[in-house]
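Researcher: For the record, we're logging two predictions in this thread. I'll number them. Prediction 1 follows.
Model: Prediction 1, sequence and structure:
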Amino acid sequence: MGAMANPAKPRRYPRVPLQPGPWVAVRGPGRTETFHCTSISLGGVFLACDEPFPEGAVVRFALQVGAHTIRGTANVRDVTAQGMGLAFLSLSVNDRAVLHAYVDQQAEQAGDKKADA
């Protein structure tokens, strides 16, 4: 399994935790599966799973956001005991705009939940 992300190295895009998060259909080497998304950023998603695709694999994905389905390709960037991290490789301009709006909305809601705590 891959190494854990280096905590000293800042992320390019901040992650937003999702509870509950959307399901993501992923087609990779030899199979297609649906996984629960536990965090998202403008750069990728983390998917909870017991049997991740191999680190380095290029996969196609479909992420349902409201009435829109974001589709693209991603690289399996990190594999941990909790699941796998996908880094987006290609998204359409429209899908990137939908993703940006969704991440902003989720970040705002997460901030509201922290303020209420």
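Researcher: Logged. Prediction 2.
Model: Prediction 2, sequence and structure:
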Amino acid sequence: MTVKKIKLSLVSILFVFLIEIHFVSALNVVVMAIFGEMVILKVDGTKHKLRVGDKTPEGITLAEIDGDTIILKQGNKKSRHKLGGQVSFGVEGSSRSKTAKKNQVAKIWPQGDMYVTHGSINKFAVTFMVDTGATWIALGVPLAKRMGLNYSQGTPGFAGTASGTTPIYKIKLNTVKVGDITMHNVEAAVIPNLSGHVLLGNSFLKHCEMTRTKQVMILKKK
């Protein structure tokens, strides 16, 4: 074999190798929803429902669920990804976020007749239910205690609920995060007899543009 032919063969092998790397690195993954112990991923347009330990046909494993964040594993590499974020996996399992900070967006899928999503308050993982009729973010006393909120030093007052008038403590939350949206010093009400999800009220929602695409609610920070 001549030197020229050897060089041509090496170039051909390198070309094929680069094509294969490009194909794998173009694998796009979108974190569409987190429902308790189940996550919905869209991998190159195909949806997969995963629980911790499950693997997609493309070789991406759901390693952990942490509030509104999940940990994905490909090979020996792990990476953290936010709800609603789009990521790209490479040959080595590396990933990069494609969600620009200037476009803070949260996508919320319905559960029954309600829009429920994971998020955080002061970095404490919570589950929010969108309530456009609520003046503030609202949470119960037991949850406020677990979060270490000094709600008793808040402003006392009363609010009308479905079960009548109830006492409340009005406070401000340092940070509230839903999807890629983060807000600071958000007004909230701590209500003694409130249980279940944290109500995502208008003290947060008024700072967002709200649209619906089919069944998905999309919040975009103004």
